[in-house]
Amino acid sequence: MTEVIPLDLRHLGRQRVIGSYLLQTSDGPALFGCRPATGVPELEARLAEHRLELRDIRHLLLSHIHLDHAGATGVLVREHPELQVHVSEVGAPHLVDPERLERSARRLYGDEFDTLWGELAPVPEENVHIVGSEVLGLGCFPSPGHATHHVCYLDGDGTLYAGDAAGVRIQPARFVLPPTPPPEVDLDAWDATLDEIERRGPARLALIHFGVADDVARHLAEMRTRLHDWADRVGDGASEEEFAAAAARDLGDEGGQYEHAMPFWQSYAGLKRYWDKRREDEAASG
Length: 286
Description:
The protein is of the alpha/beta class. It is built from eleven helices and twelve strands. α7 (187-200) packs antiparallel against α8 and α9 (240-251) packs across α11. It is globular.
């Protein structure tokens, strides 16, 4: 088995916040995830450590189009026009025309948008490929819950390139945090995704945030439990301040590092929206 090593993209100078993975496919070198445009120099530096340049990478595999996973895509294709991008059918139009995605993100992040994410450049339509059940020799399957358009990739060695579907775990820590930003958190869909991951029996989980988890059964069990525990807190009426304080207690001394990868205010906002929407739907149907 080829060793699976994350490329630490050092978001805003911080280690082990956002990663990418270099992998070999049936059509040459590929990256899984690429971080925001603010981090392109870091990505190029990590590739150089492997004696590669951006132009050596033939494919970019995306789990979803959130900016911490895919924000640099358009800039990378502009610098390397032969780069081929693989993404879900729902995500693809937002790469070709990112205006709506940027508008939504600017509402969420306000004045911090440019510092956090940088430029969102469009990707030429001819560079974008819709994923199916197999992509470049890897299995691919829908994995909604964190986002409706999320997909995972599973290679023949048993490595699941999990995106955010399997949670956040800043290695070497063991704590698993459910990433629940707005606007598309869906607990039922996420439970089904975790069931599907367990059914496929991966040997390890390659996490963007951050590192490779080999204790798959324990990791997924903790992810499922904490997802529902945190959702219940918000559903039972916790305020943002109460939720953040409880989450910080859960993490203990490890909390600060996790906060950079998945801020508690975002976790709260996504779960609050989930419950608000669910209650609106129940009222409309009842």
